[in-house]
Specification:
The structure holds two protein chains of two kinds.
Chain A (H helix, E strand, L loop, with lengths): L5 H17 L6 H4 L8 E5 L6 H17 L2 E4 L7 H14 L3 E4 L8 H9 L3 E5 L10 E4 L3 H16 L3 E7 L5 H17 L3 E8 L4 H14 L3 E6 L4 H11 L7 E5 L2 H10 L2 E6 L2 H17 L8 E3 L5 E5 L2 E3 L4 E3 L10
Parallel strand pairs in A: 1-2, 1-3, 3-4, 4-5, 5-13, 6-7, 6-8, 8-9, 9-10
Antiparallel strand pairs in A: 10-14, 11-12, 12-13
Chain B lengths: L6 H7 L1 H19 L6 H26 L7 H18 L4 H25 L4 H20 L5 E2 L3 H8 L1 E2 L2 E2 H19 L1 H11 L1 H6 L4 H27 L1 E2 L7 H11 L11 H19 L2 H6 L2 H37 L8
Antiparallel strand pairs in B: 1-4, 2-3
Helix pairs in contact in B: 1-15, 2-13, 3-8, 3-9, 3-11, 3-12, 3-13, 4-5, 4-6, 4-11, 5-6, 5-11, 7-11, 8-9, 12-13, 13-15
The chains are: A alpha/beta, B mainly alpha.
């Protein structure tokens, strides 16, 4: 049996591919940078497809795309993986999408690929987590540090009648976004709630068990504690479990920043009063609306407001489109959300 | 029996030829239904996205040819990427020197695999399963799982994005390594001994071959090229992280086995491995360019599914061809006129 010599095959490969490559792309534009005539193709990149949070984003995005009559491509890595994100973006550039909306695994991970997309005339917006400023036109910001800080403090005041001791559980004392939130919490406290007192701030290393332990310690160290505020997501159920086991459910209020699904049981038992997050579905809806507007040229740098249809008018600060105030999930409404 | 064997039978029996036609079929199909498949940019994408796995497959091939396996190459890629980041960013070594140092570390790590396998006579599967965790664990320990090295020099980053004569740099690198491994395995006595070892380790030893040294060499080579792939990967992503190359070892093994190399050793060609890499790369990229599939967002999932199906088809077709040939030979032997005794 005669074998095809391997070198022939090795050489034949690039030759073949080159033959294929000869017919050059119809230089991306022509085919689908259509705004008036042809259908717009919007590509939406989540950090990971397997995450319920992004599945909810997709839901909102699909609703917006259907309203706009645009094609929506939704693809991402199964688990967070910047390499896969890169490959998907580069595939879309070649596919010839009109606009890309991306949630970036890390700031620089796909910035080069997004810039290359812009060079080809494809518009880029980011949502949830931003890339570098020069790699996109707008960032759809789900919540500002000020918005989160103020909402947390206001809600704590509402729950405690604006007086008494409270403590914060954070992820680490160095986490930059959480320190930013704490700064706004403390500023709001000083400004509006003189009868409340922040007695302690404890880190939980982003672990539920550690949060529970810290919360238990706080409860015994400060018997007059009125409220526990958890500002990283594992700390919310952690603090709730501690309060429940100490038999202080209802007496010590629990609130925090986290996913409704992770806290549903505690909220229904009356241990946790409020869970704060943005409306994730609206984030997807707004992102697609903004992406389409950028592609159509109706949303340009310098705008201060964006009309996002059924979810209302959104404020723009610089190149950040703000989703607005965080949303408060409580006993009454938490059943309506599954992320 | 001088009649030439039927064309298709020869074809089926030669996995490289089967794969070659699969590749041509893929190219024709995706050109017809894929959106912008048949473009220079897409070709560059395919090459850039599969160069690292391709490089790993090229060095996995000699290992499998000797009857071994290396599960640690993906983890080693991650470790080398992180070390390259440490060399350039924390030790402030000049990029070329840091790259060279990374290659040395890669070869040394491969040497560790080879040493354990040949020195202690441990099974390659177990040894490299151990170093699979060890290398990844080291990479995660160095970065504490969170640190990312970025801001590499623009000259270095060109390795990930720039093209020469229409082909991305890493494509040229792949061709160079491919030819080097091809010549080594098929044209040198040193490389031919890999096949002999895989075919019969005992026989190779009785023939006077330094079996253990040759086996160790294949792992050192794999470590070296894994480090090279780490550099390409870092340049393409513009950052070095501990999770670089996760799962690449299995994709490399898939390409090698798809390319007709027997997992038991002794059979296989480098050209087949190249075809295996190309078939998988074209398939996974092409699927994402079919509008109906892209709109469903199932391009990646369908890619893995069809790669698996292709692998099973390729393996089955080889076995089928052999059994067909055996049956035909038996039938011919029966129907051939018996020589008449001279009266």
């Amino acid at each position: 049996m005669k074998r095809v010599p391997f070198l022939t095959l090795l050489l034949a490969l690039p030759v073949l591919a080159f033959l294929g490559g000869c017919k050059d792309a119809p230089s991306s534009g022509g085919s689908n940078n259509s705004v008036g005539g042809k259908k717009m193709t919007i590509a939406l990149l989540p950090k990971s497809k397997g995450n319920q949070y992004f599945a909810t984003v997709e839901k909102g995005a699909r609703a917006a795309a259907a309203e706009l009559g645009a094609d929506l491509l939704y693809d991402g890595p199964t688990n967070t993986d910047p390499a896969k994100q890169n490959e998907i973006v580069e595939g879309w550039v070649n596919y010839g999408v009109t606009v890309i909306a991306a949630a970036c695994e890390n700031k620089e991970g796909i910035s080069a690929a997004l810039k290359a997309a812009q060079d080809k005339g494809i518009k880029v917006v980011t949502f949830d987590s931003d890339t570098t400023g020069d790699a996109r036109s707008f960032f759809v910001n789900q919540a500002t540090a000020e918005g989160i800080g103020n909402t947390l403090m206001d809600e704590a005041a509402r729950l405690t009648g604006a007086e008494g001791e409270f403590a914060i559980i954070t992820a680490t004392l160095t986490a930059s976004n959480m320190n930013e939130w704490r700064k706004h919490i403390e500023a709001r406290l000083k400004e509006k709630y003189p009868k409340m007192k922040l007695v302690d701030t404890k880190p939980c290393d982003d672990q539920k068990d550690k949060a529970q332990q810290e919360a238990t310690n706080l409860l015994s160290a400060y018997p007059n504690l009125k409220c526990l505020m958890a500002i990283c997501s594992p700390a919310v159920p952690g603090a709730a479990e501690a309060v429940k086991q100490a038999g202080k459910a209802g007496a010590v209020k629990v609130l925090g920043l986290g996913l409704p699904s992770e806290n549903k049981a505690y909220v229904k038992d009356g241990v946790t009063q409020s869970v704060i997050l943005w409306k994730v579905e609206d984030l997807g809806y707004l992102t697609i609306k903004a992406a389409a507007a950028v592609a159509a040229g109706t949303l340009k740098a310098g705008a201060t407001e964006f009309d996002a249809g059924k979810i209302g008018k959104m404020e723009i600060q610089g190149d950040n489109i703000l989703l607005g105030k965080p949303f408060i999930f409580n006993k009454e409404n938490i059943d309506g959300f599954d992320f | 029996m001088s009649k030439p064997a039927p064309f298709f039978k020869t074809l089926l029996a030669c996995p490289e030829a089967v794969l070659f036609f699969v590749l041509v079929a893929e190219l024709v199909f995706f050109s017809a239904v894929g959106r912008n498949f048949n473009t220079a940019d897409n070709f560059a994408n395919i090459v850039r996205h599969s160069a690292e796995i391709g490089l790993l497959a090229l060095v996995m091939m000699p290992i499998i040819l000797t009857g071994g396996i290396d599960l640690s190459v993906g983890s080693l890629l991650g470790l080398c990427a992180v070390l390259f980041g440490v060399f350039t960013h924390e030790w402030h070594i000049a990029t070329p020197l840091a790259a060279a140092l990374t290659l040395v570390v890669g070869a040394a790590a491969g040497g560790l695999n080879g040493g354990l396998i040949t020195g202690l006579r441990l099974p390659p599967l177990i040894v490299t399963l151990g170093t699979f965790s060890l290398f990844r664990g080291l990479a995660e320990a160095i970065t504490k799982g969170t640190m990312t090295y970025k801001d590499f020099s623009p000259e270095f980053l060109a390795l990930g994005r720039a093209r020469a004569l229409g082909l991305p740099y890493q494509g040229w690198l792949f061709i160079t390594v491919g030819i080097a491994i091809g010549v080594l395995v098929h044209r040198t006595t040193l490389g031919r001994s890999f096949r002999a070892i895989g075919f019969s380790p005992e026989g190779a030893r009785y023939a006077g071959l330094p079996v253990q040294r040759r086996i160790a060499l294949t792992y050192v080579l794999a470590g070296f090229v894994a480090a090279l792939a780490a550099l390409v990967f870092t340049a393409r992503l513009r950052q070095a992280r501990a999770d670089a190359g996760s799962g690449y070892e299995l994709q490399a093994i898939t390409a090698v086995v798809l390319g007709g190399t027997s997992i038991f050793g002794g059979i296989g060609t480098v050209g087949g491995t190249v075809l295996g890499v190309a078939c998988v790369a074209v398939l996974t990229t092409g699927l994402k360019l079919i509008p109906a599939i892209a709109l469903q967002g199932i391009g990646s999932e369908l890619g893995s599914l069809l790669t698996g199906a292709l692998l099973i088809f390729a393996l089955a077709s080889g076995v089928l061809a052999k059994s067909l040939a055996a049956r035909r030979a038996r039938r011919q032997a029966l129907s051939e006129p018996q020589p008449q005794p001279i009266p």
